[in-house]
Design brief:
The chain has eight helices and no strands. By secondary structure, the protein is mainly alpha-helical. Helix 1 (about 5-10) packs across helix 2 and helix 7 packs antiparallel against helix 8.
């Protein structure tokens, strides 16, 4: 058997509305008969509340935690994810989502599949340009060097294909 909600509110130095809200949000749990066990509720209140701002409230929360529980855990007792931890994770996720959304609106982000398709298209056009180059230039080079144009074309095409094969075997990392 614990104390009434109003008595617990006086004990905490808060209004009974604050205690009702703490019960409703799951910050503290009443006993089966509806009363509040002050020691248990103080622990739950400290564990499931936001970090104290400063000063007297910090001392009150620290005083609400028994020394044995504080010594064993190095601070406030932990019982899974506390309300404060859950709120912190939620705020971090919201901030990251907003950061990505803002970067997308500013045009700083690109669609990954679209970027990969664009790079593929550029690489293919580069390869095609190199494959067509021996046919365009071999006759001019053969005339300058005084050799047969067909032999020059075959030699250039073989060299270009070998070089493109080497480039094709390279696997760049995409992080």
């Amino acid at each position: 058997m614990g104390i009434s909600i109003r008595a617990y509110a006086r004990h905490r130095g808060v209004t009974d509305t604050a205690v009702h809200k703490a019960i409703r949000t799951g910050r503290i749990a009443p006993e089966a008969d509806g009363t509040i066990d002050p020691d248990k509720a103080d622990l739950e209140w400290a564990r499931n509340s936001e970090a104290p701002k400063a000063g007297t409230r910090a001392k009150a929360v620290k005083a609400a935690v028994p020394e044995s529980a504080a010594d064993a855990s190095g601070g406030l007792p932990s019982g899974g994810a506390s309300l404060l931890q859950a709120r912190t994770v939620n705020e971090v996720v919201k901030a990251q989502t907003n950061k990505v959304r803002l970067a997308r609106l500013k045009g700083e982000l690109v669609d990954r599949p679209q970027a990969i398709a664009h790079v593929f298209k550029l690489a293919r056009s580069e390869r095609d340009a190199w494959l067509n180059w021996p046919a365009r230039i071999s006759a001019q080079m053969a005339a300058k060097l005084g050799i047969e144009p067909h032999a020059m074309h075959v030699a250039l095409e073989a060299a270009v294909r070998e070089h493109l094969q080497e480039l094709g075997e390279m696997r760049p990392r995409v992080d």
